[in-house]
């Protein structure tokens, strides 16, 4: 089975380090034999999570669209920046809205439950966004996602990529290879892809 992996960044800023990290992950996942779908959260705008809004208007269509995409893939890789040592608000809001999806057209749909997820981070400092991943890991585990142990954290990201978007540093490249390999292996073992 060729695993299908969904890849996105937790930032939509032009030139975001997390976007470059997601692109590097996409290349590595493809090289290791998976079928990759790369999306931008800019294409799935969502209002701030608000249960009054949900009660009044229901779960937004873009939350369902993202939920269906996650369900249609064997695994997910998220490349996140770090804001104030935690999860960026765009990503937290997206995860929260998707977690509200439990049915789609009367059929059960719990996108995060049991879904293998690989995590990457990046920052312009030496901590490489690791503190944000600690929180992201906890949130996704609460959503019952299956988080891969290995992760790739890109330190001093402004200097980490060459002109082709590849990592200059062997250590960072090795971390990316490891998280992608583990995600593919877990995805093959636990595929719950809707429509697979």
UniProtKB/TrEMBL annotation:
Alphabetical list of Pfam families matching this protein: FMN_red (PF03358)
Listed InterPro entries: Flavoprotein-like_sf (IPR029039), FMN_Rdtase-like_dom (IPR005025), NAD(P)H-dep_reductase (IPR050712)
Molecular function as annotated in GO: oxidoreductase activity
UniProt entry keywords in alphabetical sequence: Oxidoreductase
EC id: 1.-.-.-
Keyword Oxidoreductase: yes
Residue ranges constituting the NADPH-dependent FMN reductase-like domain according to the UniProt record: 3-157
Protein name: NADPH-dependent FMN reductase
């Amino acid at each position: 089975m060729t695993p299908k992996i969904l890849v996105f960044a937790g930032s939509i800023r032009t030139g975001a380090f997390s976007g470059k990290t997601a692109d590097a992950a996409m290349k590595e996942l493809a090289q290791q034999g998976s079928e990759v779908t790369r999306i931008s959260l800019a294409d799935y705008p969502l209002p701030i999570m608000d249960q009054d809004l949900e009660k009044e208007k229901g779960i937004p269509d873009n939350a369902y669209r993202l939920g269906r995409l996650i369900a249609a893939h064997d695994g997910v890789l998220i490349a996140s920046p770090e804001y104030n040592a935690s999860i960026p608000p765009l990503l937290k809001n997206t995860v929260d809205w998707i977690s509200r999806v439990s049915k789609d057209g009367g059929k059960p749909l719990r996108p995060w439950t049991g879904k293998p997820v690989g995590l990457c981070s990046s920052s312009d400092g030496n901590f490489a966004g690791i503190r944000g991943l600690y929180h992201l890991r906890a949130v996704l585990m609460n959503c019952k996602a299956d988080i891969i142990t290995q992760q790739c954290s890109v330190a001093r990201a402004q200097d980490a990529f060459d002109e082709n978007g590849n990592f200059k540093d062997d250590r960072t490249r090795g971390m990316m290879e490891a998280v992608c390999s583990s995600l593919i292996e877990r995805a093959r073992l636990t595929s719950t892809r809707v429509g697979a």
